[in-house]
């Protein structure tokens, strides 16, 4: 398939509503929030259950031998997918585990500083605060970010923070910077390559939180060259929940250990992360069938369609709602788009995530997260291969009704 033939919102090709048959959604439900927890095709679920059956046929053979063969196969295929050495990869259950794995392994000493963005995922920034709370004179430097902001201005903000710290000359150092590839709420694609290079130029290690990256944007770790990288396979890659990929550059592997220490402690990176104790490993095994499912369409086709649908769907919703999309630059949008909601009174008692969620679920049987950012409320919508433009239009009309009712009660 050439670039001129890649599917778009206007020309969906194999995608759109015809893909619903490959997923488990009931007829009366449309999934607009793939970004939070993902979902997986029926064939991936079938494969996961086949792995579970295989384990029960002979648990000893599986746990003591076959598991490691399967894990090696997964790492081999993922290494090709993200362009790195398989020996730099470990499989964990989710991004939160991956973040804790690295942060709780690194030897922080008094005077160390950790740089984060204010828009970083809450669990990540809270883990950083935990590290600061439990280590003497380890502090966080939080760069305040409000979108929309250009890539250039974001880089300037980060460099200003680096320069300001450098000018303190107090003996402290920024040991680690943590940056999103694609932030969660609001969802914005960051200039991740430039951020990595900038932080490295100031002597900091870089951890890329790529929770939303694999399956949503092309990933090339040999080009990106972070020190650490984590991504959820169960979000955009179509594997079962509880499957994530952790990258640790070889030069740091002697420092990094799993959150649960097993009998393989000090046996090397691969062995330490190969056995996490007795548990159900079938979610990790599902990565193999997820990759196979994607190959029948091609990565470029999946990414092209979902990105195009996010852009066109966001514009259509903004027009109906009489508002705007948060990020005016197309390259800052992946498969998730943030559309402003025309809520007049931002202090309205029901203008909050929980109450709006209840209204959407109970009255309309749909859900998209709503949140305040800057001077507006936004909702984040996830485009995916089983959606079409008309779904976004229906969602916009639902949100219009919800917001009209809210404004009428102000």
UniProtKB/TrEMBL annotation:
Keywords: Pyridoxal phosphate, Transferase
Alphabetized InterPro entries for the sequence: Aminotrans_V_dom, PyrdxlP-dep_Trfase, PyrdxlP-dep_Trfase_major, PyrdxlP-dep_Trfase_small
GO-annotated molecular function: transferase activity
Lineage: superkingdom: Eukaryota
Domain annotation Aminotransferase class V: ranges: 66-365
Identification of the protein by name: PLP-dependent transferase
Origin species: Linnemannia elongata AG-77
Organism placement in taxonomy: Eukaryota, Fungi, Fungi incertae sedis, Mucoromycota, Mortierellomycotina
């Amino acid at each position: 398939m050439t670039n001129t033939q890649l599917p778009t919102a206007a020309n969906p090709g194999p995608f759109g509503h015809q893909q619903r048959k490959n997923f488990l959604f009931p007829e009366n439900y449309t999934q607009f929030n793939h970004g939070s927890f993902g979902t997986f095709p029926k064939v991936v679920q079938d494969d996961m259950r086949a792995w579970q059956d295989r384990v029960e046929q002979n648990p000893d053979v599986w746990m003591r031998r076959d598991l490691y063969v399967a894990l090696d196969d997964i790492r081999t295929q993922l290494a090709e997918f993200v362009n790195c050495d398989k020996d730099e990869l470990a499989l964990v259950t989710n991004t939160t585990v991956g973040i804790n794995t690295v942060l709780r392994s690194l030897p922080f000493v008094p005077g160390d500083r950790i740089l984060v963005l204010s828009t970083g995922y809450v669990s990540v920034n809270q883990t950083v605060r935990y590290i600061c709370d439990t280590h003497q004179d380890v502090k966080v430097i939080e760069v305040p970010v409000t979108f929309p902001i250009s890539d250039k201005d974001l880089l300037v903000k980060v460099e200003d923070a680096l320069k300001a710290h450098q000018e303190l000359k107090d003996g402290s150092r920024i040991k680690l910077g943590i940056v999103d590839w694609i932030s969660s709420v609001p969802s914005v694609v960051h200039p991740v390559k430039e951020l990595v290079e900038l932080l490295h130029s100031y002597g900091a290690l870089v951890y890329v939180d790529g929770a939303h990256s694999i399956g949503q944007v092309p990933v090339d770790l040999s080009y990106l060259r972070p020190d650490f990288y984590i991504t959820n396979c169960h979000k955009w890659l179509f594997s079962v929940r509880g499957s994530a990929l952790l990258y640790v550059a070889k030069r740091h592997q002697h420092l990094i250990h799993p959150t649960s220490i097993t009998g393989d402690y000090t046996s090397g990176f691969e062995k330490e992360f190969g056995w996490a104790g007795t548990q159900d490993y079938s979610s990790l095994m599902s990565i193999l069938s997820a990759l196979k499912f994607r190959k029948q369409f091609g990565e470029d086709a999946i990414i092209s369609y979902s990105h195009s649908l996010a852009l066109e769907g966001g514009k259509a919703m903004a027009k109906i709602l009489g508002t705007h999309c948060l990020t005016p630059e197309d390259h800052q949008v992946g498969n998730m788009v943030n559309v402003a909601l025309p809520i007049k009174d931002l202090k309205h008692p029901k203008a909050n995530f929980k109450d709006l969620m209840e209204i959407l679920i109970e009255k309309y049987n749909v859900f998209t997260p709503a949140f305040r950012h800057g001077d507006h409320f936004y909702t984040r919508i996830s485009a995916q291969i089983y959606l079409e433009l008309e779904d976004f239009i229906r969602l916009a009309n639902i949100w219009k009704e919800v917001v009209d009712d809210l404004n009428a009660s102000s």
